[in-house]
Design brief:
The complex is a heterodimer of chains A (about 375) and B (about 450). Chain A is α/β, with parallel strands linked by helices and about 375 residues long. Helices cover about 35% and strands about 15% of the residues of chain A. Chain A is elongated. A seven-stranded mixed β-sheet of chain B has the order 6-5-4-1-2-3-13, with helices on both faces. In chain B, strands 7-8-9 form a three-stranded antiparallel β-sheet, covered by helices on one side. A two-stranded antiparallel sheet of chain B has the order 10-11. Chain B is α/β, with parallel strands linked by helices and about 450 residues long. The chains are: A alpha/beta (about 375), B alpha/beta (about 450). At the A-B interface, helix 2, helix 4, helix 5, strand 6 and helix 6 of A face helix 3, helix 7, helix 8, strand 6 and helix 9 of B.
């Protein structure tokens, strides 16, 4: 393996909580060992599954998040093998609750950085509480503010598991800082992430400093917000576009576009340049804007709106993203191969660097590297 | 440089930051917490959006209008412990001073648009010309390659989440997309990737002597979280989309009503052992055929209805405690007001207080990244605009007092407006209630 973390030994005992962090480390050259129990990592039980491949090799979550790593199977009772693996680790990723971790400080090499991703952290009254992506968002204030008023509130992009990935990415920041400190001082340390805090850090709008400031009890308002008009999602021929107009120059461009496209002379009246007036007349403004958006596709509206200097984007589906012309032109997509040799598309490197930092091998078979590391 | 074992990981590192709103500033805030000297370079003619937001309680205070730019809660939230340097980069003199600072920095961090950086003359080539081994990290909306189709397009927070697929994944199945609205995950995910890239770049530079240019296209970065859905679309044509609060991997999982107006509880009980535990508290309130995991998945509507009828009889906080006591992941759906009373959060020092020249002191949220030995620190709340212009130009760029006077005179730099005008937030007397050891902040 090449890359900036070539030679670094990382042991990951987590499931979803740490997987995105160790995926990035593997992409940047580290030796990432995923310790699996004999029945396989919990990631291997997460669908969707690839057809024609037998479990436990068919999970697409495993096939994506475990890319570039090595699989070592250790029976939970086999403390000797566990000790051997841990002794040589530069970094250990762990997601057990504080009262459930089987590892004590003596089991861990004093030079090893121990990165712990926990539902509510190592301390505090909820330290033994369990969590999930949904629970982390519920505890962040954001879930309450998302959704339509006549329906139960919803987590943001629930299937994407953002709270886990934000926790993992935060854990990686801490781990890299600890590695830097270890290189400079020779001393290791522990990194701690609370999933609740990882979600709270993404959510300052429902955070306490903001609430103290304006005392506004944030409520959900569907897919439009009364901060401005047009502001939110608007239907078009093949889905929705997102339009965010606050500034006068954006409104001037937006209203001219609607006027030209729909022969609407009223919308360019001076009175509507005032955002507060537009919010007051929001139903009317929304009707007028929809007369334009419903004539066109997402991409037509995106390109023409951006040409006119209006903050507008398509509300992309997975299909639309895969077909997106910019991502194709930028050569963003890469491929990986599944256990039966099937090639499939995957997102490429999350950033581009002038030094060669990124390369990715396929995900390993269960126990593929056990002999290599334990014999 | 001699190393002390208590030094923070980024001790001795200096960052030149051109940041707007969140994506670059949040990265810079983490860097500052862990020891870097982060110079937030600001303009009065083209200010950071957090300088325009102001503060709700200040709206009718004409006497304080001049200092409104220092009062948005986001100023500290995104910029605590940074130093603010007022430089007008569109002037030749301001730009020259900025280049003098860059020559003394280790990191260049920016989320200005790619074209804006080129137009200002701060693209990678221009910056590397004065500092060849700089770690240059930029976060443009659509990448810095000018040949790409969306290169000139404008992207910002509320529009970025729908662009990268987040809104389509948000909401109940069969409803229109609910939209994310109050949260901008792409900004924060980009910021975290920027921090990862910055630390990696610093390590590379220290070990090999070579700098690096990292281009974080915010369009691309968040898509790295969608791998399994992209693969399944490619393999089977399935377009995964929103499924409410349900899990792809088991049932039940959802948000259920509790007693009271708009009180809800979130419950995740998707594993087989979770169901056994849930059964002990549900008793016969749900049909017995749900003991079959396949029926729990195939008939989720009926299951959710029966669970909702059960949860509606409980107070949300009480029910969350009961469920967690038997090992089931559950939490109230917290409102912003609930968070004020969340003693778990305050017990972990999530809210920090630090000195502010303008407000006396200010409150902001802590770093979610916790290190046990080099645990970071906050040297101050968010700086006033231009608060450190003179100090930084003198100390870092080595400019004389006369040269700085001249630079300000010609409009290349500016200092803090009306330094003698100070105030306090209306709730300043109650700040201590947010700190650990407080039973409850309900009095606020």
């Amino acid at each position: 393996m090449s890359g900036p973390y070539s030679g670094l030994r990382v042991v990951d005992t987590t499931g979803l909580a740490g997987a995105y962090a160790t995926r990035l480390l593997a992409g940047m050259g580290a030796d990432v060992i995923r310790l699996e129990p004999p029945e396989g990592s919990p990631l291997r039980r997460l669908g969707p599954f690839a057809e024609g491949i037998e479990p436990p090799e068919n999970s697409l979550w495993w096939s994506y998040l475990a890319m570039g790593s090595q699989s070592v199977v250790i029976d939970p009772e086999d403390t000797e093998s566990l000790t051997k693996i841990l002794t040589e680790a530069d970094v250990l990723f762990e997601d057990r609750l504080p009262n459930a971790s089987k590892l004590s400080t003596q089991d861990i090499n004093p030079k090893t950085i121990r990165t712990r991703i926990l539902p509510f952290g190592l301390t505090g009254p909820k330290r033994d509480w369990r969590s999930s992506n949904l629970i982390a968002w519920a505890a962040s204030g954001i879930l309450y503010t998302t959704g339509f008023t006549d329906r139960a509130p919803v987590a943001p992009a629930a299937p994407v598991q953002l709270a886990y990935h934000a926790s993992a990415a935060s854990a990686l920041v801490g781990t890299l800082l600890a590695l830097r400190s270890r290189r400079l001082t020779g001393l290791a340390q522990e990194v701690e992430i609370s999933m609740q805090e990882a979600a709270l850090s993404i959510a300052p709008e429902t955070g306490v400093p903001m609430f103290m400031d304006d005392r506004v009890h944030r409520e959900r308002s569907g897919n439009r917000r009364d901060l401005g008009r047009p502001f939110g999602l608007y239907p078009c021929q093949d889905g929705f576009v997102s339009i965010i107009v606050l500034m006068p120059r954006h409104w001037v461009a937006m209203s001219q576009w609607v006027a030209e496209a729909t022969d609407n002379e009223s919308i360019v009246e001076e009175v509507f340049v005032d955002n507060a007036v537009r919010v007051e007349a929001r139903d009317l403004i929304d009707d007028w804007v929809e007369e334009l958006t419903q004539q066109h596709t997402r991409l037509e509206l995106f390109e023409e709106g951006q040409r006119r200097g209006i903050p507008i984007t398509p509300v992309n589906t997975i299909e639309a993203l895969v077909e997106d012309p910019h991502l194709q032109a930028a050569d963003f997509w890469q491929t990986t191969s599944l256990q039966d040799g099937t090639e499939t598309r995957i997102p490429g490197a999350p950033f581009r660097s002038s030094s060669a930092w990124w390369s990715m091998a396929p995900a390993p078979r269960l126990g593929q590297h056990t002999d290599h590391y334990l014999s | 440089m001699t190393v002390n074992e208590n030094d923070l990981p980024l001790h001795g590192i200096r960052v030149f930051e051109l940041g707007i709103a969140i994506a670059s500033p949040y990265c810079g805030k983490l860097m500052a917490h862990f020891g870097a000297d982060v110079l937030k370079v600001e303009s009065q003619t083209n200010p950071d959006v957090v300088r325009i937001l102001g503060s709700a309680w200040l709206k009718d205070r004409d006497d304080l209008a001049a200092i409104a730019s220092d009062t948005s809660p986001y100023v500290s939230e995104m910029n605590a412990s940074k130093r603010s340097v007022g430089l007008e980069l569109k002037t030749a003199e301001g730009k020259a001073a900025a280049m003098q600072l860059i020559a003394e920095c280790d990191v260049f961090l920016a989320n200005f648009g790619a074209r804006a950086l080129v137009d200002l003359g701060f693209d990678y080539d221009a910056v590397a010309a004065v500092n060849p081994d700089i770690v240059y990290v930029q976060l443009p909306g659509f990448g810095s390659n000018e040949d790409m189709p969306y290169y000139p397009f404008v992207a910002w927070g509320p529009n970025q989440a729908p662009l990268v697929g987040m809104d389509d994944f948000t909401g109940h199945a069969h409803d229109p997309p609910a939209g994310i609205a109050t949260v901008a995950p792409p900004d924060y995910m980009s910021a975290l990737h920027a921090a990862i890239a910055t630390i990696t770049g610093l390590e590379q530079r220290d070990v090999t002597g070579e700098g690096v240019h990292v281009d974080i296209s915010q369009f691309e970065t968040t898509l790295a979280l969608l791998g399994p859905f992209v693969m399944d679309y490619e393999l089977t044509g399935t377009v995964h989309s929103r499924i409410g609060n349900r899990s792809m991997w088991g049932s039940p999982q959802g948000v259920y009503p509790c007693s009271g107006d708009e009180r809800w509880i979130a419950i995740s009980a998707t594993e087989p052992q979770d169901w056994d535990a849930l059964r002990t508290v549900l008793g016969s309130c749900v049909d017995s055929d749900f003991d079959d995991p396949l029926i729990r998945v195939s008939d989720q509507d009926r299951l959710d209805e029966q669970i909702s009828a059960w949860t509606a009889g409980f107070e949300s906080e009480d029910l969350a405690g009961r469920l967690q006591a038997v090992g089931i992941a559950a939490h109230i759906v917290s409102t912003n007001e609930d968070l004020l009373h969340d003693t778990h959060v305050t017990s972990r020092q999530w809210y920090q207080v630090a000195d502010s020249t303008r407000l006396g002191r200010d409150v902001f949220t802590n770093s979610p990244v916790k290190l046990s030995r080099t645990s970071g620190r906050w040297t101050g709340a968010g700086p006033s605009m231009g608060q450190h212009t003179r100090d930084v130009l003198s100390e870092v760029a080595g400019m004389s007092a006369a040269a700085i006077d001249n630079l300000i005179e010609v409009g290349g730099a500016f200092e803090q407006i009306d330094p003698e005008t100070t105030t306090t937030r209306p709730w300043d007397d109650w700040v201590h209630l947010l700190l650990p050891g407080t039973e409850d902040a309900r009095d606020l």
